[in-house]
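S.,

Sequence below, as promised.
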Amino acid sequence: MTHFSSAQFEPNYDEAKVPVFPIPDLLTTFSGEIIKNSEDWNTERRPELLNFFEENVYGKVPGTLDNASFEVVERNENALNGKAHRKQIEVTLQKGSRSLQFNILLYLPKHKDKAPLFLGYNFFGNHTITTDLNVLVSKAWTMNNEKLGITANHATEASRGVRAHRWAIDKILDKGFGLAVIYYGEVDPDKNDFSDGLHTLFYSKGQKQPKANEWGSIAAWAFGLSRALDFLEKEKQVDASKVIAFGHSRLGKAALWAAATDERFAGVISNNSGCGGAALSKRKFGETVGRINTSFPHWFCDNFEKYNENEEALPIDQHQLLALIAPRPLYVASAEEDQWADPKGEFLSAHYTFPVYGLFGKEGITSQRMPEVNQPIQNTVAYHIRTGIHDVTDYDWEQYLIWAKKFIE
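The prediction came back faster than expected:
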C-alpha cells in the first residue's frame, strides 16, 4: 500500500484547476444496462451502487449483534421550563461476551402525542448541546478542546452548553419536532485506534483492526444511528416513520451513510459534509480523497485508499451516494466560507440526483446553477448555501424545519 503524508495534498481552491471529468451515470449499470423505471432502480442499480460503497468506501458491517437493549436511566415530563419531555436512554449492544454502551438524549414536545424527530450525533457530549443541568456528562474518551473546557480527554461540567448554539432546541420543539442526540465518541472514539469502540465487538480471535473491506468509523457511527432508531421505534411518543438523520461535517457523512443503508430513515440532512459526504470527489477541490484518508485513516475502509490522488479511477461519485436516499427527502447545505468542504461540489452532487428522484415522481434540483447565498431551494431534494463558516446555525435549522414540515411531517 502506498503511504502518503498530509503535506502532499495542498488543497485547490481555484475553479480553473478543477479537472474535466465525466459524471458517472446514475441510470446506467456497471454492465451497461439502462435503468428506465423505479423498479429497475430498486432491484438492479441501487443494490450494486450500495455494494460498491460498502466494499470500497465506507466498509461492510462484519456481522450482526446478538442483542441490543435499552434502559431509560432518567426522565422528566416537565423539562426545559415546561416545554418538553426529556428521557435519557442507555443503549447496550452485545456480541458474544463483549458489550458497548452509549446514551441517547431525547427531547419531545409536550403538546404532541407522536412527534416526528431529528436524530443526530454531537462532537463533545450530550451535555454540551444544552444548558439543561440534568443532562448526564459523558464518561467516554473525548477529544481535547481547551476552548470548550475539555482537557485530559475527559468531559466535565465546565463544557456544559458550549455547543448549544448548534442545536436550536426551542425552535425544533416549537415546530412540533423532537430531537434525539448521541455523543459519537461513545459509539466509536474518533481516533486512529481500533482497540476500543464498536469495532471490537465483532473481532475474531486475535483480530486488532477491521479487514480492508470492513467498516471504518463513519460506518460505525451510521450503525449506531440505526440502533438508536431501533429504540425510537419502541418509543410511543415518537412517530418512528418520520425520523430524519441529521449530521454536520464528518457526522453529516455518517448521517448520509446511515440513511443510505437503512431505509427506515424518513429523510436525511447533510450539513457541510464535504469530501466523503455530499461533495463530488472527482472535482479535487478543497479536501481530497488522499488528504482525508491521510488525516483520518480510520474513517473509511482501507480499500478506499487506492483512490488517494486517483479519484479519476473511481467508477462512482458522491451524487450516487445521495441518490441512494431516493425517493426520501434529502437536504444538502453548505457555507460560503467553508471552501474546504467544496460548496459547489456539494450542490452539484445534490443536483445530479434529479434523474433518480424523477423516476419516483419527486422533484429534485434540475438546474446546474447554484442558488445565491441565503436563497434556499426547497424541493424533495433541497439545498442552500448560507453566509458564514463551517458550523450549524439558527439559519440552517430554520430552513430545515420549513422543509421538514413540508416533506416529512
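The mean pLDDT is 97.

Coffee later?
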